[in-house]
Amino acid sequence: MAFSDYIEECLGSSGVPVSVTGTTTETTLAQVTAKVGTVEPGDSIEVSHIFSVTNDASSKTLRCYVGSGSTTYVQGVTTIVQGVRITKGYIRNATTTLHGFSAGSANGVGTSTNSSTTGAGNWNSNQNIRLTVALADSADIGTLEAYVIKHNRTPIPTS
Amino acid sequence: MKVITGRLVEITDEQGTRQIMEPSEPIPPCVRIFIKGNSYHIAENSDDEVRLVNEHAELKEHLERNGQFPIIPNPKKLK
């Protein structure tokens, strides 16, 4: 295995907090683009993100998209103040991404009670990785505190 | 402090079709962003950040509750 075959690159990261209020429209708080040819079958995308939301009874929906038309992570929350989460997208082929889990607080890394899902996303073209928040009560606040988006490729040694 | 308007974009995924809001132009380097309604209020330095937080009571309350941002007056304004 040549070293050039191994990739662990950061596609984007930020510690700048981005807050939204005053709308119930789903709002993009961060977005990076994986250029065509960057991500190949067998690769994976790892997004670690920290959200905080107003601690009240109203719903806030946090989403992470890995590839267009593909919700890798969606979770409805009400009372979290700070939460760190890792979302994975495994590139099964050029147009299918396997997601370790789909939704809900019980469906995190290591779950054995919820099935995985797949999503579309044509990696033969530029694909966006986005983090969004939608508020049910426009008076609430949702904040993306920080995120890191990594692209990984670890070939199996042949000799 | 810079203000950028948002624009609605329609997307479709396994949860159906819905509209999301995205900034109408790239966000410049900054220290904090506050999206209120369809406007992106962007603090490009620490002085901006203090002003931004103090101008938006709901953001100030949110930050004080979460204990993330020391709400201090701008030293320049104390003189």
How would you sum up this structure in a few lines?
Chain A has 159 residues and is an all-beta fold. Chain A is built from no helices and eleven strands.
Key features of this structure:
heterodimer; A: 159 residues; mainly beta; Jelly Rolls; four-stranded antiparallel sheet; elongated; B: 79 residues; alpha+beta; 3 helices; 4 strands
N to C succession of SSEs of chain A: EEEEEEEEEEE
How many helical elements of chain B? 3
**Overall helicity of chain A:** under 10%
Task: Output the CATH class name of chain A.
Answer: Mainly Beta
SS field, number of helical segments of chain A: 0
Average predicted local confidence, pLDDT of chain B: 84
Quaternary organization: heterodimer
Radius of gyration of chain A: 16 Å
Strand portion of chain A, in percent? over 45%
Low-confidence stretches of chain A: none
Q: Give a short account of the largest sheet of chain A.
A: 7 strands, antiparallel
Question: What percent strand of chain B?
Answer: 35-45%
Q: Strand tally of chain A, please?
A: 11
Q: What is the count of distinct domains of chain B? A: 1
In total, the number of domains of chain A comes to: 1
3D shape of chain A: elongated
State the distance separating the first and last CA atoms of chain B: 21 Å
Q: What does the overall shape of chain B look like?
A: globular
Strand order of the largest sheet of chain B: 2-1-4-3
